[in-house]
């Protein structure tokens, strides 16, 4: 039988957040818990926080656990890492977290998780065609979903635009770091999104990340062919999407076992 509850975790540069998710509705079944990301965000330190987070909830033994991680995930292995400790490179995240929590863990890129969250329960629900979910935070994350199917690890935050790594100019952290007003930041976003649009011709762009709650300040300033709208799940999207992806994973391995 398919599980209706899974646990989602979102690992970010400043906080590690987790909550149990009702997979029918995409809503949390208990309050989200947030633990600050350890200053030295090594795999060992982060794994300890994760064990604490999972242990704080009374989860059914078989509940799937999904982790959204801010790096491209090559079948669970971190390929490169922009915004956490460099020692993450090459780490097998599900193996590390299995050791720390005793549970089977599915690890996915954080923007892919957010994309799936928005597609199943939020702003991109029921949308066919090419949907691009872009998260603006410490970095820029991207999820490309074509007719409901995720193309994982697109990493469009690292496109080189005008000689710069795009996220170093257009992420929300760049706006904060440089004290840009929304009009100046929107100019950078325009350059970013028009480049992405030229490459992929999306039908819909969904903008997520914490700053998306202030969408009225910058989305109307953008001039694009594609419709561009704010995310609905905002910062919950990573947790919800990771939980949903973990549940699908668990279901797939159950089916495989049954066939054997
Ligand atoms: C990382 C991506 C991640 C994004 C948002 C980028 O620097 O390379 O994997 O999705 O930041 O966290």
Automatic annotation (TrEMBL):
InterPro entries, A to Z: ATPase_NBD (IPR043129), ROK (IPR000600)
Matches recorded under Pfam families: ROK
Alphabetical list of NCBIfam families matching this protein: PolPhglucPhase
Family membership: Belongs to the ROK (NagC/XylR) family.
PANTHER family in UniProt: POLYPHOSPHATE GLUCOKINASE, ROK (REPRESSOR, ORF, KINASE) FAMILY
Record-given protein name: ROK family protein
């Amino acid at each position: 039988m398919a599980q209706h509850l899974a646990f989602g975790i979102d690992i970010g540069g400043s906080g590690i957040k987790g909550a149990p998710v009702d997979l029918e509705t995409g809503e949390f079944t208990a309050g989200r818990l947030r633990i600050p990301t350890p200053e030295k965000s090594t795999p060992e330190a982060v794994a300890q926080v994760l064990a604490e987070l999972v242990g704080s909830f009374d989860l059914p033994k078989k509940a799937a656990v999904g982790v959204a991680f801010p790096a491209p995930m090559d079948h669970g292995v971190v390929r490169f890492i922009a915004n956490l400790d460099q020692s993450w490179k090459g780490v097998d995240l599900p193996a590390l977290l299995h050791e720390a929590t005793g549970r089977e863990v599915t690890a996915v890129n954080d923007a892919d998780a957010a994309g799936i969250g928005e597609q199943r329960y939020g702003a991109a629900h029921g949308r066919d065609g090419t949907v691009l979910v872009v998260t603006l935070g410490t970095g820029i994350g991207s999820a490309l979903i074509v007719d409901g199917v995720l193309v994982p690890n697109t990493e469009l935050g690292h496109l080189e635009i005008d000689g710069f790594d795009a996220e170093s100019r257009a992420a929300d952290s760049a706006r904060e770091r440089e004290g840009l007003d929304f009009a100046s930041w929107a100019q950078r976003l325009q350059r970013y999104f028009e480049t992405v649009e030229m490459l992929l011709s999306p039908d819909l762009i969904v903008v997520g990340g914490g700053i998306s709650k202030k969408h009225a300040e910058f989305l109307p300033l953008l001039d694009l062919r594609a419709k561009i709208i704010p995310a609905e799940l905002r910062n919950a999207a990573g947790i919800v999407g990771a939980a949903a992806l973990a549940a699908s994973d668990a279901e797939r391995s159950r089916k495989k076992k049954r066939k054997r």
